[in-house]
Amino acid sequence: MAAPLDLDAAVLSNTTLSPDYSVLAFDAPAIASAAAPGQFVMVRTSPGTDPLLRRPFSFFELLRGTDGTRSGFSLLVKRVGPGTLRLCDARPGDRFPCLGPLGRGFDIRPGEAWMVAGGVGLAPFATLADHVRQAGATAVLYYGARTGSDLFYLDWFSARGVGLALATEDGSRGAHGRVTVPLERDLATAAADRPVTIYACGPEPMLKAVARLSSAHGRPSQVSTEQIMGCGLGGCYSCVVRVHDGTAHGHFARSCVNGPVFSGDAIMWE
User: Fold this and answer.
1) pTM for the full predicted model
2) Of 123, 120, 157, which Cα lies nearest the Cα of 140?
3) What 3-state DSSP class applies to 249?
4) N or C: lower Cβ tally within 10 Å for the chain?
């Protein structure tokens, strides 16, 4: 795993998806060239102390130049506080210190990739979809949100041959309910010898449900956790996840260095 780099990255573009979501593209070839699906970057959003700590973001897209080499990355950002507000208001040319790539990403297995995203949990799957497509494998995105207007980048995934299985809590698009509704339906009907790995990112209750569904149907799962991170380097122990170790109580693993991606069966879900 490559050592992380701490670089001032210039904003290339800021695309507003909705009042709450934006996609920022950064010029950072050195970080992008070392990044893998499921890894993340820590971004300092202010030169001062408000906020004091950097914010973690999964790599969304790994951008390429005209010669095909990686030239930067994009981040899917949701407005939730002063730090993300500054990012969502950024203009091309603004610079932000970015530390990455960090963490352990997805262990991409042969066969089909069923990617399960809840809300901003869509973030790691643009990069994963590109890797799966380049390997010639099939990818399906199971994507859930509150309403149809909260589902983003559908055309982007479709254009890359990724199948879509959508769900909304208000029933305005796709299945009515949570994203586990279409996932459970397809798990129940997939042939046992069909090679499928489940990759998930989203709120912890969703990850727990996906891990248990996958296990019940004999499918391996990998979940990208969304623990709050203080440093991203394993020093502050603010992002621990309880994992199995053969004892009754397990032990705490730091999601920033031991994850953020874990096997769904490895986590001791509360």
Assistant:
1) 0.95
2) 157
3) coil
4) C
- Rounded distance between C-alpha atoms, residue 168 and residue 21, angstroms: 17
Residue 266, CA distances (Å) to 222, 258, 269 in order: 9, 12, 9
Pairing of strands 163-168, 139-145: parallel
Residue 231, phi-psi category: left (phi > 0), alpha (psi -120 to 50), beta (remainder): alpha
DSSP labels, 68-111: SSEEEEEEEEE--SHHHHHHHT--TT-EEEEEEEESB---PPSS
C-alpha distance from residue 209 to each of 71, 265, 269 (Å)? 37, 11, 10
Residues in the chain: 270
Residue 270 CB coordination number (10 Å)? 7
Structure tokens at 122: 């869509």
| Helices then strands, each counted (H, E), the chain | 6, 16
Contact 57, 75 (CB under 8 A): yes
Q: Which residue has the tokens 């949570």?
A: 178
Running DSSP on this structure, what letter comes out for residue 64? E
What pLDDT, in 10s, does the model give residues 231-268?
898 988 889 999 999 999 999 999 999 999 999 999 99
* Domains within the chain, CATH numbers bracketed: 5-102 (2.40.30.10), 112-226 (3.40.50.80)
Span between the terminal Cα atoms of the chain, in Å:
31
Q: Sort strands 112-118 and 139-145 into parallel, antiparallel or unpaired.
A: parallel
